[in-house]
Amino acid sequence: MNLLSKFLSAALALCMVAGCLASCNPESTDTTADTNTAPETSGELGEIVDYVSQLKLDMTSSSLKIENVKVKQYIDGDTTHFYVPESVIDKGILKARYIAINTPESTGQIEEWGKKASNFTKTKLQAATSIILESDTDALNVDSTGDRHLIWVWYKTADSAEYRNLNLEILQEGLAIASSSSQNRYGSICMNAIDQAKSHKLFVYSDENDPDFYYGSAIELTLKELRANPALYTGKTVAFEGIVSKNSGQSIYVEAFDDETNMYHGITVYYGFTLTGAGLNVIKPGNKVRIVGSMQFYEAGGTYQVSDLKYDMMDTKNPNNIQKLGDGFEASYVETSPETFATSKVAVTVIGDDGEETLKEVDYAELALSSTLSMKNLEVKDIYVTNNDGDSDGAMTLTCQAGGQTISVRTTVLLDEAGNLITRDYFEGKTIDVKGIVDYFNGKYQIKVFSVKDVTVH
User: Fold this and answer.
1) Helix (H) or strand (E) holding 366
2) 83, 112, 116, 208: which one has the fewest Cβ atoms less than 10 Å from its Cβ?
3) Range(s) of the chain covered by CATH 2.40.50.140
């Protein structure tokens, strides 16, 4: 949406001017920034001020500035990871938390306008020909997590263009609420942008519904959030999006990629016998879906799953329905090293019983549970064959070695192209490559394989 052409209303503009004048409260930490924080107010009734064009990047000020940066990962509206010179920060990756703004969530629990804010930031930076990062002081400052740095993001889209302050632009668009917005070097102009967005009721300040948000009874979240905090949502109705990778035994496996952790997260979804043919077509492997169901702890497997799916053919857009969002997708089968699978940790935000958020190191395999992966050059050292007069007779657990790690591969009952049972002789003493699902059994993480076609024997 083009802010400069929105709501040219004389009555609202009068409110805007009054709000802007009342909120001017410069709190700059650098006297050189004062020329940037004294915006012109509207010179004509009904005109909306483009505060971003008034704020100028002063390369001579005392604040720390980082040039020649590139985007590594887009996270959400107020967080981006950048490649920076290693002389600035170890390993050359800076996780930037934008100063003065707080956009709605789109990586944990999904909030109204969260996706729009995230897409706005991504679109602006994708068009950038140059990006400069600026700290509010002469040094880098971390946020409350201790893992991200508080940053002003400046960008331009042509060599001849002036740099624009993305933090301020997000505020001006009405895609963020204030976050210590007056307490920084650009405090006054930030507050004016916020007051203007409020006056014109833009996005987060509007009474409009977000077209990208589902207004049902379910908690909207990402698969990463569900995997990082499963106990928090137990017994609650949750909704998330992902790709169906596998259908097996009245259950499907759904996975989705997360930019911040740079990995796939998954969940098992039990549909049982409640879905009709039309409902089953929604959850076919290769479909992108929106799953709505109840988060439950599955005692027999010792893992969490989602169940109690509903599909109403007469009301397919009902926000409490499962929905097909697209098709033609494939399972990721990310090639994963044995060391990563067995020993790596990933930092995620975990919510405690008191509601406090903390950054915690969690096992890679735990966060990857129910997602797909591939692994190569596993040496089969031992084989256990199930034989208990049940449906799983003939299924095998292969204990493998690779890269100094022990990896368990669990198969279903495997048949060759002629329909004959694959026995232990097929794998004994061999080296194999596998494609499967991250599974959990008897206190250990393993790789579950569903077809002989998903195993390559060397």
Assistant:
1) helix 364-367
2) 208
3) 219-332, 335-457
Second CATH level (architecture) for the domain 3-205: Beta Barrel (2.40)
Alpha-carbon dihedral sign for residues 174, 176, 179, 184: negative
pLDDT value at residue 355? 87
Helical (H) or strand (E) element with 278: helix 277-282
199-210 as b/e, with b when 16 or more CB fall inside 10 Å?
bbebbbbeeeeb
* Backbone torsions φ then ψ of 200, nearest 5 degrees: -95, 5
- Bin 223: left if φ > 0, else alpha if -120 < ψ < 50, else beta: alpha
* Whole-angstrom distance, CA of residue 419 vs CA of residue 153: 60
Within the chain, all domains assigned CATH 2.40.50.90 are found at: 3-205
Q: Can you tell me which residue has the tokens 């994708």?
A: 126
Q: Each residue of 311-347: pLDDT tens digit?
A: 999 998 899 999 999 999 999 999 999 999 999 999 9
What pLDDT is stored for residue 300 in this prediction? 83
Question: Encoding tokens for residue 16?
Answer: 């805007």
What does 35-73 look like in DSSP terms, one character per residue?
Answer: GGS-PPPPSSTTPPP-HHHH----TTSSS-EE-S-EEEE
Residues of the chain whose pLDDT is less than 70? 1-46
Structure tokens at 11: 């009555």
Give the pLDDT score at 47: 75
Residue 193: what pLDDT?
A: 97
Give the span between the Cα atoms of 156 and 382, in whole angstroms. 59
CA of residue 310 relative to chain centroid, distance: 25
Decide: 138 and 63 in contact? Cβ < 8 Å.
Answer: yes
- DSSP state letters, 437-451: EEEEETTEEEEEE--
How far apart are the C-alpha atoms of 346 and 360, rounded to whole Å? 8
Global confidence as pTM: 0.86
Strand partners, 292: 239
H or E segment and range at residue 263: strand 263-270
b/e string for 44-66 if b means 16 or more Cβ within 10 A?
A: eeeebbbbbebbebbeebebbbb
How many C-beta neighbours within 10 Å does residue 414 have? 21
In this prediction, what percent of the chain has a pLDDT beyond 90? 84
How far apart, in whole angstroms, are the C-alpha atoms of residue 113 and residue 174? 10
If DSSP states are collapsed to H, E and C, what string results for 387-416? CCCCCCCCCEEEEEEECCEEEEEEECCCEC
CATH 2.40.50.140 fits 219-332, yes or no: yes
Nearest residue to 396 via CA among 315, 455, 355: 455
Tokens representing 287 are 């479909």
Q: How many whole angstroms separate alpha carbon 165 and alpha carbon 57?
A: 8
